[in-house]
Specification:
Elements (H helix, E strand, L loop, with lengths): L1 H5 L1 H46 L1 H19 L8 H18 L3 E7 L3 E2 L5 E13 H11 L6 E11 L8 E13 L1 H5 L1
Antiparallel strand pairs: 1-3, 2-3, 3-5, 4-5
Length: 188
């Protein structure tokens, strides 16, 4: 017993340090973790509450976007097989060229590209034709009057044999883009 009293203070310090190390520090660490988790959960709950509050506004926006999309989607081609679409468009263009007495000299399709962040696929057709200037101009004006949006990406015009009272001959090279809705959008 005497020996215990002799080492009373060192034993007391060891006991206090042990108590701190094995009981108090883990408890404080656990509390910090719980507080941190609670703060994270509070932020999540706050975000969800804001979304719930904004639900009506978000629903109205979604309905407006869907309505606007329906309105503009009529200007794009509905989804169909790529080869069928290309063949159909090429035949239509060749038919229109003949109607306006224009002669096609070359026609070729470019790579098909899905446009990022949109439900659209872009097809590009490059073709050249020659004929009377009046006919070529009438053809180009008519081509832009179609229901589905067709964008002229490039237009190269070469005019020759002009005389007083005559516009002469034109050689025109056009790169035309067609826009088609992707399969999910057309079917959805």
């Amino acid at each position: 017993m005497n020996e215990l009293e002799k080492y009373k203070f060192p034993i007391l310090i060891i006991l206090i340090l042990s108590l701190l190390k094995f009981l108090i520090v883990p408890t404080l660490t656990w509390q910090d973790e719980v507080i941190s988790e609670n703060k994270l959960l509070q932020r999540k709950v706050s975000k969800v509450a804001n979304l719930i509050e904004d639900e009506q506004q978000l629903t109205e926006r979604l309905e407006k976007i869907e309505s606007d999309f329906k309105d503009i989607s009529k200007y794009f081609y509905s989804y169909e097989n790529e080869q069928s679409f290309r063949l159909e468009q090429q035949k239509l263009i060749e038919k229109q060229l003949l109607k306006f007495e224009l002669k096609s000299s070359s026609i070729g399709w470019q790579n098909t590209v899905s446009i990022p962040d949109t439900p659209l696929i872009r097809f590009q057709l490059q073709y050249s034709f020659t004929g009377k200037s009046e006919n070529a101009i009438s053809y180009l004006v008519q081509q832009q009057g179609v229901q589905h949006w067709q964008e002229i990406e490039t237009l190269s015009v070469n005019v020759r044999r002009q005389k007083a009272g005559r516009l002469g001959q034109m050689t025109i090279t056009v790169r035309l883009s067609f826009y088609m809705l992707n399969e999910e959008t057309s079917n959805g």
